[in-house]
Every structure is written in C-alpha cells, then in structure tokens.
Specification:
The complex is a heterodimer of chains A (about 450) and B (about 600). Chain A is α/β, with parallel strands linked by helices. Chain A is built from twelve helices and 21 strands. Helix content of chain A is about 30%, strand content about 25%. In chain A, strands 9, 13, 14, 15, 16, 17, 18, 19, 20 and 21 form a ten-stranded mixed sheet that branches. Chain A has a seven-stranded antiparallel sheet with strand order 1-7-4-5-6-3-2, with no helix packed on it. In chain B, the strands form five sheets. In chain B, strands 8, 18, 19, 20, 21, 22, 23, 24 and 25 form a nine-stranded mixed sheet that branches. Classes of the chains: A alpha/beta (about 450), B alpha+beta (about 600). The structure holds adenosine-5'-triphosphate and magnesium ion (MG).
Amino acid sequence: MEKDTKAFQRVYTKLSQLTKATVSLNAKGIGYDELAIVDGRLAQVVKIMGDIVTLQIFGGTEGIATNAEVIFAGKSPTLKVGEDLAGRFFNAYGEPIEGGEIMGDEREIGGPSVNPVRRKQPSEFIPTGIAGIDLNNALVTGQKIPFFADPDQPYNQVMAMVALRAKADKIILAGMGLTRDDYLYFKNVFDNAGALDRIVGFINTTEDPPVERLLVPDMALSAAEYFAVEKNEKVLVLLTDMTLYSDALSIVSNRMDQIPSKDSMPGSLYSDLARLYEKAVQFPDGGSITIIAVTTLSGGDITHAVPDNTGYITEGQLFLRKDSDIGKVIVDPFRSLSRLKQLVIGKKTREDHPQVMNAAVRLYADAANAKTKQENGFDLTDYDERSLEFAKEYSSKLLAIDVNIETDQMLETAYGLFGKYFKPAEVGIRQEFVDKYWKNNK
Amino acid sequence: MNTIGNVTGIIANLVIVETEGTTAQNEICFIKHGDTRLMAEVIKVVGNKSYIQVFESTRGLKIGTEVEFMGHMLEVTLGPGILSKNFDGLQNDLNKMDGVFLKRGEYTDPLDMDKKYEFKPLAKEGDKVEAGSWLGEVRENWIPHKIMVPFKFKGGYTVKSLKKKGEYTPDEAIAVLIDSDGKEHKVTMVQKWPVKVPIRAYKDKPRPFKIMETGIRVMDTLNPMAEGGTGFIPGPFGSGKTVLQHNLSKNAEADLVVIAACGERANEVVEIFTEFPELEDPRSGRKLMERTTIIANTSNMPVAAREASVYTAMTISEYYRAMGLKVLLLADSTSRWAQALREMSNRMEELPGPDGFPMDLSAIIANFYARAGFVYLPDGESGSITFIGTVSPAGGNLKEPVTESTKKVARCFYALSQQRADSKRYPAIDPIESYSKYLEYPEIAEYLNKNISENWTESVLKAKDILLRGKEAYEQINILGDDGVPVDYHIRYWKSELIDFVILQQDAFDKVDASSSLERQDYMLRKTLEVTDFDFSFESFEDVGPYFKRMINALKQMNYSEFDSDKFKKNEKELEAILKEQEKEKVKEEAQ
Ligand SMILES: Nc1ncnc2c1ncn2[C@@H]1O[C@H](COP(=O)(O)OP(=O)(O)OP(=O)(O)O)[C@@H](O)[C@H]1O
Ligand SMILES: [Mg+2]
C-alpha cells in the first residue's frame, strides 16, 4: 500500500499499549477521528486522553511491535471521487484493486447528513418484475431496505437481479466479508448484462481483515453522494452483508472495553447503523440514493440485535423463504414489508393495487390457518380447501422470485386466482373495483 | 465573565474539559474548534474536570482547544413564530440553514425577529400580574398567541405601562413591569426557558376529566385518551407506531400538535413536511401545517441532541398550554432518547442498570411524563398537554427497561401486536392487552355517557367482553377442532371477528375510513352490537363463517362510505337483508 508521507508529518516509534485491535501512544496535536499508518497499516484515532492517543488498527494488530512506526495523516479517512470511479472495483481504503490511480476530488468519508428540509419525499416506483416485491412490497427511490435471509439463501443473486432491472444510473456495491466467489459472481453478472460501466465496487472479502470492513459502507456512500448530489443521478447502493459489518463493530468495541449491550453488540449499534442507512435520500433535483442491503440471520432469528436494530432503522424488510409446497424460494408476504410502498401503489400503479395486494395476503393468511388445522389433524371446511389451493398457485405464480412480469399483469393474475377460488364477498375488496376489474363477475 | 477551560480528553462526543472557574450541571458551553463553535452540555463535574456531551461530531477536535461556559442551561426561545416551524432538537430553524447538508456549528434563530405582529393588549396599567399572566396577544397563524409575563419572573409585579394596539417586532418591549422592590423590568414578546425545568405557571392540575377525540375507533371507542392524559405505544418494528402517531397528528381534536421526531427516519419527517401543508384539519378546515410544529432530531443527526429534542418539544408544548390551548405532544420514539442516555452513560463508565441503561432511567421517564396534564391557569382559563410516546422495545419484547418504566407512568397502553400487523389488521393495537385507565375514572365515564350516548360505557365493556370471549372460543376451536366444539363457539368467535373487522380495523390510508367522528363511532358501535346481540342459529359450523363474512363486508363498506350517505345507507340495507335471512330461519325453526 502506498501512502503519501509529507515532510511535516510527525513520526512516532514508541507504543505504550497494544490490544488485538488498538494501540496507544504518547502524541500531541492529534485530531479526533484522524487517520494514521501504524507499521504500514491504516489506523484511526478513537480516543484521546491528555497525551495518550488510542488508535484502532483496521488490519488488526498481529505482529505489531512496541517500536512500530506511527505516522499521523492529519486528516480523517477520504475518498477521491469523480467520473473515474465508474466501472472500477476498490478495496476498503478506496484504492483500485486492479491498481492504477483515480482522478478526482478528495472527500472525507462519513460526512454530515442531509438537512431533512432539503429532502424530497420519495415517489418514484422501482419496478423489478418480481411480484413478491412489486405487488406486495413495492420499492421506491430514496428508500433503504434490507433482505433478511439465512446464509444459505440466494440473496446475492436476487439482489443482483433487482439491481440490474432497477434502471439505476449507478450501482454501487459495498461488499463486506463477501466470499471471493460471490465477488466474482457480481462482477460476472454485471459484465454479462453490459452494465459494468455503471458499477462501482468497494470490496472487503473474507480473505481481508474484518475490521477493514468498517470503512466500506462509508466509502460506498460517499461515492453515492457524489453521483447523486453532483451528477443528479439515480444511485442504487448494495450493502452486503451488514451482519458481518456489525460483527466488525463489536470486535472493536469489545476490544476497547466498552460495556456490550444485547448479543455482545455495542450499545451504539442503532446509531451506528442508522448513520449509514439514513444516507438513502431523494433530492429535489432528481438525484437519489436507494439502499438495498443484506442482513443475514442466524436460524431465522430476527430478535437478534443486528436484524432487530436494522428493522427499526430501515423502511421495511424483505424476507426470503423456501416454500416447500412449491419447491421455490419466495418473498414471504407476511414478514416482508416495504414501508414506502403506499407512496407509489395505487398512485404510480393501478388504483386497485393496494386493495388487491391486501386481499391476496389476507387469503394467504387464511390458508396458513387452514394448514395449521390440517397439520393438527382436523377436518377442513370447503373454504379451507379452496384457500389452500389458492395459496399454492399464488405462491408459484406471484411470490416466487423467478417471476418476471409487469405490475398490471400481476394484478390480472391476482384477479384470475380470486375468481378461480372465491366469491367477491370472500375477497372483500371495494365494490367499485370488483365491478371494474373482476372479470366474470355476475 | 464566562468561565473558560481547555479540552483534555475526547471519546467520540464525550469531551473532558479542565477549568479553574465555576461550571454547573447542565450548563451550556461552546468548544472553539477553528472557526466553528460546537455546542455542548455539562453532564458531570469531578474536581476541576467538567464532562461535556457535544451536540455535534467531534471529528478533528484537538487537546487544548478552548471551551467557553455560558452560565445558563440549555434554553429554548419562546415567542410568536414557533408554530409551523421545522426545528432541530436544539430549536434551530432548519429552513434557515444553507445548503443541502447540515453544517457543524451552524445555529439559526428559532424566531423571525424582523416580522411584525399585530399586538393587542389584554392587561391594563396598574394590573397585578405574575409569571404566566397574559399581557396581550398577537395572531400567530390563526392562534391568539398570548404574550405572557416571563416564566422566570418570581413573585408579584404591577403593570407600569403597556404598548397600545399596533404592529411590533418580537424583540420590542411591549410592557414595563414593576416588582415589589419598585424595580422596572421590560418585557418583549420573547422569553427564554431552560428545557429540563417544567414550566409551572398554572394554578392547579386536576385529574383529566374529558376525552380527547382522535378519530381512531380502537382508541376512542375502546380505550379513550383523556385530554391532558398520557399514553404510550410500544410495538416491534413495522407494527405501525409511526403511522398511528401520524394519524393522531392529523385527526386528533387538538388546537396544536407538537411532533418530536426523536432518533427516527428522516423520510418520515419529510412525509409531514410534504403532506401537512396540503392536508386539511378535519375540524377547522385549515391546513394541518398551521397547527403543527416539528422538532426533528432524526437518527442520523447528533445523538446528544436527541435527548434535548424531547425536552425542547415538551417546553414548547408547555408554553402554548399556558396560553389556554389544547396541545397534543407526540414523541417517536422515546426508546431512542433512552438509548442516547445509555450511550453517554456507557462512555462515562457509569455503573449500568438493566440492559446497560442508566440507573435512573425510570425516574427520568416519570419526570418527563409528569409534565403533561390538564391545568387551570392563573386567569381561570384552562389548557392541556396530552402526551403520547412510542416505545421501540428491543426484539419486540415488552419486558425491557424502557417499556417497563413507561408502563408505570403512562395511563394508556396501546400495545401493538406483531401478529395483528403480520395479518394486516391495522391499526395493530391489541384489543385485549391494551388499556385506558381513564375508562375507570368516574368523571370520564360520566363525560362519555353524557357526550356520546347514554349507556356508552356499558356498550364499550360489552364489546370488550365479546372480543375476549371470542378469543377464548377461538382457542378452544384450535384445540378441539371445528366439529369438536358446539356451533355456538363458532358464533362467538365470529362475533368477535365482526367487532375486529368493523370497529378495531381502520384503514389509515383511505380518505373516508381514516378518521371517524364520535357520532359515527357511536352509530357503528350500536349497529355492531345490534348484530352481535342477535340470537343466531346455524345448522352446521360451516355456515357460520360465510354468513358472518357477508355481514362484515356490508359493515366494512359502510365504513368506507361517507357517513349517512346513500352508499352508506345502501350497505346498511344490505346488512339488514342478511340479518332477515336469519329471522326467517328462526320462524321456520319455531314452526317445526
Ligand atoms: N393503520 C395502518 N393501515 C395500513 N397500513 C399500516 C397501518 N399502520 C402501519 N401500516 C403499515 O406498516 C408499516 C410500518 O408502520 P410504521 O412505520 O408505523 O411502523 P413502526 O411501528 O413505526 O416501525 P418502526 O419501529 O420501525 O419505526 C407502514 O409503512 C404501513 O405499510
Ligand atoms: Mg416508526
């Protein structure tokens, strides 16, 4: 790693304390959050007490000796931004992975937040063709939403698909603890789609030190802000995997002897994650940052501190689940939710969209009840039977992630299923919509 | 001379300052970081070290930097011009800030000091006055904004002179008062007050005795909120806390709404900015924004200011209450405020209480809720603050410190249930867990029976009973199977479903259904109870569900139609026709 050491920078060579993630030394005139290079590794100031400065080493402290060379950079972490970023992949420090230089302005990452009165209300529908998303959980530009998925689910594939169909001007991939295979998968998919020039990647793979991940989302979001604010572009940011990012947060805070809160995560986890996710924004001039993230769950547990805090921050969540009845992965309609959908459904899409969506989910819930009944060995009513049949078809024709149709077609499909299995009174949508859209309605 | 000190330690936004002079708990100070001044508050003093929490990012801050202590606590500026503003947690006017991004150390004037207000005196020369007495009034939007004797004034004063009717700017003296020592004091339209101290310019604070209409059936009908009452809405993420609060802010019968967006999403505040200037207050016909003030400390804004934001909102509410207004204060989410306290307490390495929250969390929450209430003012008028906060329990588990501490002090409990939210039964208020203690107040019961209809409370209890019995029946059906229980169990269950679908569930996004007047709620409750009172008989349990669904559909269509409109009546007729079928069955049965 090449570092520019300027003449006036002071060099220290005496560490007074070493832990797994931090080092401390006597130094003067250091700014809080400032960057330093310790024995060639990037570090950042996390605490100053009188003359004692504590640094967090992103690459870990293995092998660092008490006489290691410490050079302070006099600034906090930065990224060079410019059109030059497009089509390239970077490491956690914002250096091109394939080498070379970047032309552009140097910006501090993790900068200030947008004044809320300068934001615009998100209102642009992002069609993805996946009915489990578009019909039930429509996405909107400026939204932030994670996939909640178990590690064995194809979340990176779905995310790549969504990204490509979303018609974004730029797609910024922030990979944290990404396997090398998945990294290459993303590169391939984008390449095959001829979209590589719209992609910017900041990648920390499982082969890199985990603490380095802490820089990745801020790098990606600074690049996103550049394109959204200065170029008025529609930017889609993919953050995968935020659970691994949070793990890195806990490593650092635990090593700094902070009192851990739930699940050994730092007490500030909510604020730490919110600071990133809140970078999602719709600007009045047309630029926007939309964030689609992945939060992997362990054993589907959403009460764990990471998914729990995430749920409180993001504007909904998308659950992937394998439906054993049809043998496909579906977007779970019960636990998935797009909070911003009401800004577009029935407004940017057909007027009956909200009612159709709700009715179908309600019927699907009736089927779930019938299923419980069946499993407990009870007799099913005629209605139960019909709802079970409906559920199966609804799942394969609309919820499965391999569906790719227009929104109007999703609505028509839903009416088709309603008509096949139910009477209008059982479906319970507004009479005027029944009259207008329900075919074969006597 | 202000005390001056120097920075000796920095851990995130906790900064340690050494000083020779005096400093005070909660005193405000400014760190002179280059050209910017970073505002901070003293939270602990040990010897000559003051621990301060900085309301901004401390990036780049260095040891030795000068700090100036201001000699006062965190204060808000009170005067005409607050209404309809969008403030941050420290009462900076967000609209006055330049640029797209918030700049560290930029503080803006909460009021518009150049604006002239038409002043009308209310007091006369020679009047005896005290803190909170009304000296005059100006018009702020449509509100008669009272100019009061500043709350900081102690003891009795005499009005020496008062400006005549006319136009003045907020900072012009409009009165001169004389204290008991004969000293003169000039009074302008503007005063300052420390946010953490309650404004006590009232004579008496009785128990709430009337209800605050919210237009939300599951609240008004089943668990009413009192004017001057307190309540809280705990619920897991996505269960509908914010939608419910927004709905309250749109439809509740309040003169004024103060919204503290505390550590939540910026887009939710933007929704208010965007919609409220367009939407109408259903009662006054004015734009909603005219009665709304927003204190926004969203989750990406500095954490320390989050704590301040709820106090800023409360103090502004108290100021308007002292003018004799009915204020609704909403805070979303009080858990974020508690978390801000926790972050700071951890940084200070204090002995943690349960879940790492500060030991005195309960007391802090109790003191805050105690500031709400209905009050009688010195001049015999009355005013109120109704406070409803949301709570975001970790993992959705209500056995956690913030929920438990709040439950001890708030009188209404609106528990949002994950299960109801998952099945889209909105608002997801759990009808069995939730309660309003006010329903047990005899004065409230009397008020309800007098103002809504005779026997109202009796009907409400009846509806609650049906819900409970329906739940029990449902559990039995699940255990024993559909045909393992008498048909009567199915009827009982479906009666509770009918109340659930018609009274409890309400579509917040439907123009008509979003808000329901008390008159309409009364009508619908009676209509539903008429149905549930009916002595149904079915041959098989299989007939119960489909039959009830038809009635539910008719009643729901009534909810979707304008009250008393032709459409409403048509659906009502349809309901009656469905009921007739059962009557015929009855006649047939009896004939046999
Ligand atoms: N009354 C309602 N009618 C229809 N939909 C609703 C209603 N209440 C909530 N929802 C749906 O649930 C979503 C989440 O609601 P809301 O944002 O109020 O949750 P919350 O409890 O505030 O969550 P968080 O704790 O994460 O802030 C909404 O975006 C909306 O889709
Ligand atoms: Mg909310």
